[in-house]
Amino acid sequence: MARQPAAWFSTTRISAKGVLTTAQHTLTVVGVSALVVMAVMFVRPDLAKALSDSLNRTPEAEVAVVTAPPLSALMEAPAANAAAAAAAPLTAEEKALLGTQKQQQWVTTWLSKRYRVAGDAANMLVSTAYLTAREIKLDPLLILAVMSIESGLNPFAESPMGAQGLMQVMSKVHHEKFQDMGGLQAALNPVANIRVGSLILKDYVTRGGSVEAGLKSYVGAAAFETDEGYGSKVLAEYNRLKQVSAGKKVPTITPVMVASQPKPAAPVAVAEKSVSGTQIAGL
Question: Which of 89, 137, 200, 276 could bridge 282 with an S-S bond, Cβ 3.0-4.6 Å?
Fold first, then answer.
């Protein structure tokens, strides 16, 4: 009985000594590991920076979700003139100018296939061209022909000279025409671009006295002997659109046109007769 306390005390001392030894070894390992880590970070500061960034990570800012606007909003007219024109009753001249809804659909389908434009987008472009044509009394097929040759129906096209949009309008030259439609930034708005380009075309045709002269001025070649085939390309596309509008089957792929040699300029009266076979309404 007298030996039991002594034995218990001896066992307790041995256990405590083991715990202290284990703790000492653990601290030694931790200390050595810390020294190794510090040495590695001293040699490789990039690892130290990465560790610091991971420990002091700030919450990432929320990324705003950008939703593309509907195509109808993009194509919305900048002015109320088009809506007012659509609501007004058609005159006999306007009915002949605009044709039927079925003819517009034929033109839309053909242009969509020819220039690889989505059907809805092509429909909006054609509708805008027809509404603009009705308002300014110009053949919509001529407007569409110019759009096709100028930009291939790409509303965001821009030339090295700064011509912009569907009808490649020099917005810096004609900036005053965009003022009522939102300023120069409206040059890439399809509706504004079609309207301004059509007004410019109408003005050039009226002043030039013929479609050819108007197209020559439109392309910026009024002061030159030839327009390098630009007018021929537009009128050829116009004739194709006219056949499509008449319900004829017209290939969507045509061979590349080769510009013909320039001919001597004819008087205005003769020039007007030269397009009698493809009379352009409203001119």
Answer: 137
Q: Which of 184, 211, 209, 194 is nearest to 154 (CA)?
A: 194
Burial class, 227, CB count within 10 angstroms (exposed 0-12 / middle 13-18 / buried 19+): buried
Q: Residue 277's pLDDT is what?
A: 42
Report CA 167 to chain centroid distance, whole Å: 14
> Quick one: pLDDT at residue 95?
73
CA nearest to 218, candidates 100, 233, 85, 254: 233
Residue 88 exposure: Cα atoms within 13 Å on the Cβ side: 14
* Per-residue tokens: 96: 């002949």
d(CA 10, CA 16): 10
Question: Does residue 188 contact residue 155 with C-beta atoms inside 8 Å?
Answer: yes
CA distances from 7 to 12, 14, 15, 20, 260 (A): 9, 11, 12, 20, 122
Sign of CA dihedral 145, 90, 209, 79: negative
Computed on alpha carbons and rounded to an integer, the radius of gyration of the chain in Å comes to: 38
- What predicted TM-score, i.e. pTM, was given to this entire model? 0.63
Average pLDDT of the residues of the chain: 75
For residues 250 and 244, is the Cβ–Cβ distance under 8 A? yes
**Separation between Cα atoms, residue 111 and residue 129, nearest integer Å:** 13
CA angle 77, 83, 88 (to 5 degrees): 155
